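Please review the protein record below. Let me know how this chain folds according to its tokens.
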Amino acid sequence: MKPDVYTRLSGMMFLQYFIWGVWLPLLARYLQASPDRGGLGFTPGQVGWILGLAGSIGAVVAPFVAGQVADRVMSTERFLALLIFLGGIVKYITAYQTSYVAWLGLSILYSVLYTPTLALTNSLAFAHMRDPDRGFPFVRVWGTIGWIAAGWIFPLLWLVRDVGLSALPPFYAGVDRPDAIQRIADSLRFSGMVSAAYAAFCFILPHTPPQREAAERLAFAKAFGLFRRPSFAILVAASLPVSVIHQIYFMQTSPFLGDALGLAENKIAPAMTIGQAAEIVVMGFLGMMLRELGFRWVITIGGAAYVLRYAIFGTTTLPVGLIVASQALHGFCYACFFAAAYIYVDRLADADVRHSAQTVFGIIILGVGPIVAAPTLGALSRAFTAAGGTLNYSYFWYSLMGIALATTVIFALFFRDETRGPEGSIVRPVKEIHEGID
């Protein structure tokens, strides 16, 4: 990869996850907090549907939008700019809404616009790499840095006063503003403004034209043919339950840190970025891990990290510092499971449908997963909420631990890498560069 291409792709990933990370970690805190504290007073079940149903519809629509258009009609970078700009407008409008119906409808619309861009940025990056196994982690890590930057910058600017320097991350200290919870709504406005800048940035990304000369008329249909490959089917089957517990993490961790552990409002988002900081380290070694251990064991490590994280979360008698520090396991959760899975899908798919293959996989982790997560969160919340309205977080997190454990064991037993021969050689090497890309 040329240095200028690496710089542009890295900037793309930074902005892609900055506009997401600035609002997602804190959103459940704002939506569930009572109106007298500045929140909207929604139930955990309603929050689950706002995040879950919206994400699901967006991911299911994505194959018919992102994959087909980017693979066949419009250059990826221009289509990305259009979706990001429109999504930013929707997110800005959402900040002014107070009703559940308005939040649900606008969240669905935003997801329809934003979710396809996750697959588009991945496929655009893959298209300009000679060796995705080695190159992708070093580009994708800038998305993680963007998420961390959002989690530190927004609380510093909006939620805290009497700011002073601190020796520990995020390197500032202060006290919550009296209206800190209410001010979380500003994260949506901030995201909308940065989205406009990101859309303009997309026009300097490497040109990635559609594959108009491809033999298959419907790239999306061909991409779905990957389900005939046993390894892809098993990967999808494992990704579904893991994506459910992954989504619930974002739906309930901020209320858990605030209500159960008593963290200050301005510390919740920075505390959650511990996971992304660890992700940077793990991503740096992901290529080496894939070469040395293979996809089967790397993805198994990712599943085991989910087991351990929820086991620690559930043991609420542990010191608060230890529970907060366990966020570092998120680095293994995402990098070893989902980032490795993205790379595997790119290796398994033919060159002319890689955009659509990434989107098909996105249906599972960003489509089916969230819509299952919503009723699962509602059911667990009702089952483990006492008469006084207090959620028993120990039982709640232990339930997710059990799902992670069963899934990880099944995956380790049945998954076999179909991109390598008996001696470990790659059967279908990734092409050095996509046809028609300069």
Notes: The chain is about 70% helix and 5% strand. The domain at 3-207+219-414 is CATH 1.20.1250.20 (Growth Hormone; Chain: A;). The longest helix spans residues 265-314.
